[in-house]
Write a structure and sequence with these properties.
alpha/beta; Nucleotidyltransferase, domain 5; 5-stranded mixed β-sheet; binds 5'-O-[(R)-(carboxyoxy)(hydroxy)phosphoryl]adenosine; binds zinc ion
Length: 365
């Protein structure tokens, strides 16, 4: 048995998790998982303010560490290793989690593991199957050969996973990430942040075929979503009122938010969501065929999207691929996925040097 404590502070979420796993990777027990979100703090600035994010990590982290060890009924000295996200992300945020994990590792004389945030997402589909003894273990642990789609607010990429720590980049976005497109388009529609869940909610009653939106770069293994965002931007003045009412009742010409009735919003959300789902599903299946795998996995915040999950599952079933997607709580940023990646690495003999620095641009492959 190994017990790992991990911190995730790559962006605006402070998270701590404690995970225990047996050496055959079959039994994994999540002893604690704490996440403190800062969405409300940054919302009023219209984006994340790095300095505020890192100051809040410093406030939240000690409290979460205390609560996690208390929930897990375990002492810090009983951990076998300490881990933290070392990139990619905001430098001033990454620094906090990595410094705390290193400090604990030095203080308790235990190994330190620097984990790539993207590897946390990438391996998260194996998390539950590992704890449920469902996945037949191969000689390289629970991680089976697969083609993986990581789709989040900061990243959109497909990866060929040979085994643990053997990853090959297939394609990545050349401009916006899919989650970023959801967030930006939601803002144009006057919906809240994060935009993905808002668009999904309105899309449920909408017609996905009402607006013909572009599916970019279908012949490439890379992704592009900025053309889709621009197409929505130019569509809005044609279909929505361009006047808004000021607080004193005057009508003024406006750019955003547009005056739209609920029907138009629902149809726009459904059409936009379908354009993204089409591209993600088509490219993932094409990659799975090219790399001749029998398993497809998907992770990251956008993989919470029920329509994406449903359509990818249906297409995988038709094409003869198995699909593994984490439960929704594991899709958005959390420390359990970092602890899981650290546990698999630790049990396979990986460790990081205490001199290992954070890297805001850390690549996965
Ligand atoms: O993985 P994550 O928590 O953070 C990053 O590493 O980026 O992903 C956050 C992103 C946001 O852009 C958010 O709008 C998107 O995931 N997201 C969704 C949904 N839930 C979250 N996008 C589409 N549909 C959803 N249900
Ligand atoms: Zn993430």
């Amino acid at each position: 048995m190994s017990t790992i404590l991990a911190l995730e502070t790559s962006c605006d979420e402070t998270a701590v998790a404690i995970l225990r796993g047996a050496h055959d990777h079959c039994v994994v027990e999540l002893l604690a998982s704490e996440v403190a979100s800062q969405i409300a703090v940054h919302e009023k600035y219209g984006g994340i303010v790095p300095e505020i994010a890192s100051r809040n990590h410093l406030v939240h982290a000690p409290r979460l560490l205390e609560r996690a060890t208390c929930d897990a009924k375990i002492e810090m000295s009983q951990m076998d290793a300490f881990a933290a996200t070392s990139g990619p992300g905001l430098a001033s945020s990454l620094m906090i989690g990595a410094s705390i994990a290193k400090g604990l590792a030095i203080g308790f004389n235990k190994p330190y593991l620097a984990i790539n945030h993207l590897e946390g997402h990438l391996l998260s589909p194996f998390f539950l199957s590992a704890s449920h003894r469902e996945a037949a273990t191969t000689e390289d642990g629970t991680v089976r050969r697969n083609v993986s789609l990581i789709v989040s607010g900061g990243h959109t990429m497909s990866i060929f996973v040979r085994s643990l720590a053997e990853y090959q980049l297939i394609g990545r976005t050349v401009d916006d990430a899919a989650g970023e497109a959801f967030d930006k388009v939601a803002k144009m529609f006057g919906l809240g942040y994060p935009g993905g869940p808002e668009i999904e909610k309105h899309a449920r009653s909408g017609d996905p075929e009402r607006f013909d939106l572009p599916r970019s770069m279908l012949d490439s293994e890379n992704f592009s979503f900025s053309g889709l965002k621009t197409a929505v931007r130019y569509l809005l003045p044609k279909i929505a009122g361009r006047f808004c009412e000021t607080p004193d009742g005057e009508l003024r010409l406006t750019e955003t938010p547009y005056k739209m009735d609920d029907r138009v919003i629902a149809d726009l959300c459904a059409s936009f969501q379908q354009a993204i789902v089409d591209v993600l599903v088509r490219k993932t299946i094409a990659a799975a065929q090219k790399f001749n795998v029998d398993l497809v996995t998907m992770s990251g915040g956008v993989s919470c999207n029920q329509e994406l999950r449903r359509q990818l599952a249906a297409t995988c079933a038709r094409a003869g691929f198995k699909l593994k997607v984490p439960e929704a709580w594991l899709c958005t940023d959390n420390a359990a996925m970092i602890a899981f990646a650290a546990l698999l690495r630790f049990q396979n003999g990986f460790q990081s040097s205490m001199t290992q620095e954070i890297d805001p641009n850390l690549a996965l492959a």
